[in-house]
Amino acid sequence: MRPPPSKAEVLVVGGGMAGLCAAISAQKAGATVRILEASPRHMRGGNLRHARNIRIPHDGISSYSPGIYPVEEFARELTEVSRGDGDAALIDMLASRAADLGEWLADQGVVFQTKHIPFSRRTAFFLGGGKAATNALYARIEALGIAVSYETPWDIDTLCELPSAAVVLCCGGDQADARQRFINRGTPFNVGAPMEGLIRAGAAVAGVSGAVHLVAVDARSPRHDGGIVTRIDGMQFGMMVDAQGRRFADETAIVGSRRYSIWGQTIAALPVPSATLVLDAGGMAAMPRLAFEPIRAANLGEMAALIEVDFAALSCSARQSGRVRKAPFFAYPVVSGLTFSCHGLRVDTRARVKMGDGSVSKNLFAAGAIMAPAVLHIGYLSGTALTISAVFGRIAGEEAARHALG
Predict the structure, then answer these.
(1) What is the CATH number of domain 10-204+346-405?
(2) For the whole model, what pTM was predicted?
């Protein structure tokens, strides 16, 4: 761990979307700011690096988002996915403050895709993906003269000693904690130490400990940081079998965007939480392009040996389902990959950390994944994680600067 940084009026812990927005907002409000980032420079940006799009409400058609997506509709969807367990005041704040988010991000240098974009009236796509958005925001940080300390992780005991008037926690949840049993699709630096330390110290808890959002990923993916490219799709073109070679689900039951999370949860619930997508020649021809090459076999007997399942069970599954018929055969090993955890801190509408006794911290703020469960509880709404990060990052930065400057 590096030595404590020099004094700044506002210290931002974490250099992803939430932290970058917080730092920019605090600096523009007149405070001196420093970012403490756990990762080395080449891995900066948190999970923003792996993002493609961000959910933004808007009252009219724009160059990067067709159609209309009213603030009221966004707020209603947030309430629905949180099943009424999300903080209503935070939901309203998020929906209303997200309305100018596209323009604000563009002013900071983020470029949105305006040509050949997937139809989505709810989300805007980053030109060049999340890595380009990360680089744009860091360029803005550098232009504003905001200092960044890389490879500087902090726990709650050290945070209490930091030389600053206000601290903004934007260091994510605990999805990279070594105790998690799933492949972590995102940054390996979100280990949850500040969050867990604050909870032990009496901070109010949001969400449910142990609850996570999962999707199906290739079992050959790296333990951390594989991102969206490791996701497995195309189950409807083949047959899903468990560790014994038995078919365990209807591959065509869910084909909308919810299929990713449903498969992730379904596989995690298996007695042995792993599966294999098996395809025949026709199924393979229909498959989308995936990151890893498929396992290939001339016949089902050879395939059973390669994927280490019982040949009789695999053959029976193929015969009964009628979904795998014509050689050659192909397979992808599948496990559950963790996108985010659903456990975090409660905050008020000024992004101040709430305590379990009902009080509110005066100089400790939080934004992003560390407080997202206060909005979504254990729910999921695509593109919203970055919206929460950007909106509450801006709020936290503004409020931290206001406190620091008196």
Answers:
(1) 3.50.50.60
(2) 0.93
Report in angstroms the alpha-carbon separations of 172 from 19, 74, 169, 361, 366.
10, 23, 8, 19, 10
Q: For the packed helices 17-28 and 384-405, what is the interaxial angle rounded to 10 degrees?
A: 30
pLDDT at position 228 is 92
Please give the DSSP secondary-structure letter assigned to residue 235. G
pLDDT tens-digit readout, 141-190: 999 999 999 999 887 667 666 678 999 999 999 988 878 889 999 999 99
Pairing of strands 33-36, 147-149: parallel
Q: How many CB atoms lie within 10 A of CB 360?
A: 14
**3-state SS class at 316:** helix
251 in the Ramachandran plot: left (φ > 0), alpha (ψ -120 to 50) or beta? alpha
Closest CA to 368 of 206, 222, 223: 206
Q: Report yes or no: 352 and 361 within 8 Å, Cβ to Cβ.
A: yes
Q: Give tens-digit pLDDT for 339-374.
A: 999 999 999 999 999 999 999 999 999 999 999 999
Q: Which class would CATH give 214-337?
A: alpha beta
Dihedral sign computed on CA atoms, order 217, 218, 223, 227: negative
Provide the phi-psi class of 192: left if phi over 0, else alpha when psi is between -120 and 50, else beta: left
In single-letter form, the type of residue at position 131 comes to K
pLDDT of 223 over the 80 cut = yes
- Domain spans of the chain, in order of start: 10-204+346-405, 214-337
Under the phi-then-psi rule, with left for phi > 0, alpha for psi from -120 to 50, and beta for the rest, what region is 30?
left
Q: Among 47-51, 116-120, 262-266, 347-351, where is mean pLDDT lowest? A: 116-120
